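Incident review: delayed structure delivery

Summary: a single-chain prediction request sat in the queue longer than the usual turnaround. Root cause was a stuck worker, restarted by the on-call engineer. No data loss occurred. The affected request and its eventual output are reproduced below so the record is complete for anyone auditing the incident later.

Affected input:
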Amino acid sequence: MDPRVTTTVNGAPLEYVDKGGAGPVIVLLHGALMDEYLWRDVVTQIAPEHRCVIPVLPMGAHRLPMPGLDVSPAAQAELVADLLVDLELDDVTLVGNDTGGAIAQLLAAHRPESVGRLVLVSCDAFENFPPGLPGKLMALLCKMPGAMYLSMLSLRIPPLRRLPATFGWMAKRPIPNDIFTRWLDAYLSNRRVRADVRRMMSHVDSDDLLAAAPSLRAFTGPALIVWATEDRVMPVDHATRLAEHLPNARVSLVEDSYTLMPLDQPQPLAGLIAAHIREAETAVTGTHPRPPATTQVGGDNNRHRSSMPDLRKEPT
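Output delivered after worker restart:
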């Protein structure tokens, strides 16, 4: 990944990565206890033809604490929106996975002016906030002094990362050690970062996403809902529920992946994102028909089969 750029957004210190060329802008949002490296393999696929901007949100793997500042999910959505204003970016493709998808929903619902296209990838939605067993356990641990720190410290033992309550249900395959270690180190090495996480989790409330869902109807840009068929944390039926709240949405289902699709299936996901952008651009000229409302991409550890054309090629 490229080096981080440091900036200040409305008084909040923020780092972000800005990589790629002069093509369409893609803004990628990561989940809790993660950073830009969630998207490393996806960016490798799409950066040559796109500009990828990845904010490092105050979710636990950030290096710039925000003591005394609002780090609630709603405030983080505002932070991303204000960053786009500062960078003079509009008509971006906003992509969110895991809790980053919750932030993307809040932004699209309440600050849609900079968002041209939306991609939600196996993410928190509706009443599933905090999501599943890992999210609910994290919320509980953050209420008990020292509990979250000890839980994260235990993840220095790699087999514990594969437990359902930690990251075993988040990624189908072990998260690369170099990525997981940087996430752990960021959280464990700075008590003010840990304080940010506790404050964030104290504001995670399913009522916020349930209230935002009807407002998504006002977002009329092209939306793509990408969901893992084997997801154990994010209910698969939430993909169709989200699509029902977005007037211009379609659903793509991806096999052989859990929630963290950018790690489990980066190549198919990158292809879907790139195709979504191309389809939105060609729809303006009316040169290509709209794709089916629901598609499915299959794969295993080493290959991918698809019921669609190769999404890395231009449609014909």
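Verification: The radius of gyration is 18 Å.
Action items: add queue-age alerting; document worker restart procedure.
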